[in-house]
Specification:
Number of strands: 9
Strand order of the largest sheet: 7-6-5-8-9
Bound molecules: phosphoric acid mono(formamide)ester, norvaline
Oligomer: single chain
Radius of gyration: 19 Å
CATH superfamily of the largest domain: Aspartate/ornithine carbamoyltransferase
Order of helices and strands: HEHEHEHEHEHEHEHEHHEHH
CATH topology of the largest domain: Rossmann fold
Distance between the termini: 18 Å
Largest sheet: 5 strands, parallel
Length: 312
């Protein structure tokens, strides 16, 4: 049976730790893994825009000796999926050609469907519900910065969205507490919160929601934010911006956090909306390390899922 990354629930804490070890080794000595995916092709389907995810997967697969096929769902060169070919049929067909599927799309059910009906590993490259590859690169970045993720407290400031959901699942797996500081109107998905809290109970950490952002960030090790308007929410932009305005990460908010705190953002950032220039470009910001680590963490993920590296 192929292994997948539909959400971070597909990895337990030990597997997560193994992936982070491997990602660190790949970052330090990439040449050791230059033929990990030799002779393998990976389909990358993008139904939403991307800079980091698409480029880091394409470059990463190349660096592992494999072939990356960047595919879209619209326009003259787009997949038939964009014209209604079912997930079921797409999964069956792709499984005859390629050794793995990376997909960025709207509905989480499409990722689940490809995994269910195909026979090759499926990687969620962002849906409306989750962004697990981002979560893995974020853990790598926190681990690099603090030496370990365990015992750290991450406060996500903003809407309870896909990035927040993946951080809520990443935290327990890495021994970190996670707080989502969000307006009452934009909470995280209730089902994901329950899952994350169940995982936190299992791994001995905490996941919570707080509406008082100033109280939430007190003493935090990591402050994390994301865009106020996610892909697919453009029509609601005005309302979202209005609700989220008090949740801007600025120097005054950073001053309330722990003395050695760092600032994180998955990017792309909307400067001077969710985060000010001063924080983005300040000494505590690790946003470009995060972007770089997308490459290393995803290479580790591919090597493990494609069975080019052992899980233990
Ligand atoms: N952080 C992230 O996924 O960026 P892209 O949308 O550019 O891929
Ligand atoms: N929440 C954002 C993340 C982009 C990487 C979105 O879904 O657009």
């Amino acid at each position: 049976m192929a292994r997948h990354l539909r959400s971070l629930r597909d990895l337990n804490a030990d597997e997560c730790a193994r992936l982070l070890e491997l990602a660190a080794d790949i970052k330090a000595a990439p040449q050791k893994y230059a033929s990990a995916l030799a002779g393998k092709s990976i389909a990358m389907i993008f139904a939403k825009q991307s800079t980091r995810t698409r480029i880091s997967f394409e470059v990463g697969i190349h660096q592992l000796g494999g072939q990356a096929l960047a595919l879209s769902t619209g326009g003259g060169t787009g997949m038939q999926m964009g014209r209604g070919e079912t997930t079921h049929d797409t999964a069956k067909v792709l499984s005859r050609f390629v050794h793995g599927i990376v997909i960025r799309t709207f509905a989480q059910s499409q990722v689940e469907g490809l995994a269910e009906h195909g026979s090759v590993p499926v990687i969620n490259a962002l849906t409306d519900l989750y962004h697990p590859c981002q979560g893995l690169a974020d853990l790598q970045t926190i681990r690099e910065h603090f030496g370990d993720t365990r015992g750290r407290r991450l406060v996500y400031v903003g809407a309870g969205n896909n990035v927040a959901h993946s951080l809520m699942l990443a935290g327990p797996r890495a021994g970190m507490d996670v707080v989502v500081a969000c307006p009452t109107e934009l909470p995280p998905n209730a089902h994901v919160l329950l899952q994350a809290q169940a995982d936190a109970a299992e791994y001995g950490t905490k996941v919570g929601v707080e509406t008082d952002v100033e109280r939430a960030v007190e003493g935090a090790d990591v402050i994390y934010t994301d865009t106020w308007v996610s892909m697919g929410e453009e029509e609601e932009a005005k309302r979202l911006i209005q609700i989220l305005r008090p949740y801007q990460v600025n120097e005054a908010l950073m001053a309330k956090t722990g003395t050695k705190s760092i600032f994180m953002h998955c990017l792309p950032a909307h400067r001077n909306d969710e985060v000010t220039d001063a924080v983005m470009d300040g000494a505590q910001s690790v946003v470009f390390d995060q972007a770089e680590n997308r490459l290393h963490a995803q290479k580790a993920l591919l090597a493990l899922l494609m069975e080019a590296a052992p899980w233990s």
